């Protein structure tokens, strides 16, 4: 694919995200007045627009091992990431990712300023003061939904780009399997085999257990987050997969 076509692919990605954001904003305005589904309305009004984005190897790894930074994205994919950052009010990453990768979280390839940086520690430290919950194993975890609600309510952020690491990505998708949380997903897949730290782990959610008013049933179907109308964009050697959740 030649350079003009590559840049056209970049434009399609950013244009699609803009459309998703506009649709979300229009939905917010409708919900301010009336909604046929009051439960969905209440959820959407509490949360910012959430874009989940990360780079992984072709075998689903985000790094060689935990705590070891691993460059996966090509130059054009990195440019895309910086462009997407300028479209959001905040970037959300785990503290472990900051320590390991020391990401600059700036938009070197595109104009615009990021209003804020926010970090959540997925192993229990409360960087922005959100509450923690205990998982099935008894370990304390940050309540990612509560954290995002705080970003909307206390910081006034209407859009957040979640970049990782693995614990934060898993928490976001696990919550999305239970109830709406993530709006758009952008995944960069590099043609590299690593066999390292998996990007996502343990998403299976029992549908009966996910419903607070229903008794859990071991035979109930398992629900997994699934992209709606996914799009596929080659960027140099990388493949970008994008869709609504």
Automatic annotation (TrEMBL):
Residues 48-204 form the Bacterial bifunctional deaminase-reductase C-terminal domain. It comes from the Eukaryota. The keyword Oxidoreductase applies. One of its GO terms (biological process) is riboflavin biosynthetic process. Pfam families: RibD_C. One of its GO terms (molecular function) is 5-amino-6-(5-phosphoribosylamino)uracil reductase activity. Pathway: Cofactor biosynthesis; riboflavin biosynthesis. Keywords: NADP, Oxidoreductase. This is Bacterial bifunctional deaminase-reductase C-terminal domain-containing protein.
């Amino acid at each position: 694919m030649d350079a003009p076509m590559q840049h056209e692919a970049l434009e399609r990605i950013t244009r699609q995200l803009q459309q998703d954001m506009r649709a979300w904003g229009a939905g917010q305005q409708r919900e301010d007045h009336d909604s046929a589904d009051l439960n969905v309305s209440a959820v959407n009004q509490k949360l910012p627009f959430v874009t989940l984005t990360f780079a992984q190897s072709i075998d689903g790894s985000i790094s060689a091992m935990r705590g070891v930074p691993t460059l996966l994205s090509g130059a054009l994919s990195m440019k895309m990431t910086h462009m997407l950052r300028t479209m959001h009010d905040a970037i959300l990453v785990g503290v472990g990712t900051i320590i390991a990768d020391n990401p600059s979280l700036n938009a070197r390839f595109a104009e615009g300023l990021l209003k804020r940086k926010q970090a959540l520690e997925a192993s229990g430290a409360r960087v922005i003061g959100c509450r923690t919950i205990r998982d099935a194993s008894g370990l304390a975890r940050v309540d990612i939904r509560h954290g995002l609600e705080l970003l909307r309510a206390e910081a006034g952020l209407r859009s957040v780009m979640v970049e990782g690491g693995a614990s934060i990505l898993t928490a976001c998708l696990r919550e999305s399997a239970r109830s709406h949380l993530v709006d758009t997903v952008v995944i960069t897949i590099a043609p590299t085999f690593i066999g390292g730290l998996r990007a996502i782990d343990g998403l299976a959610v029992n549908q009966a257990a996910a419903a607070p008013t229903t008794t859990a049933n071991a035979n109930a179907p398992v629900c997994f987050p699934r992209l709606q109308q996914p799009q596929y964009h080659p960027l140099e050697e990388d493949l970008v997969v994008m869709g609504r959740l």
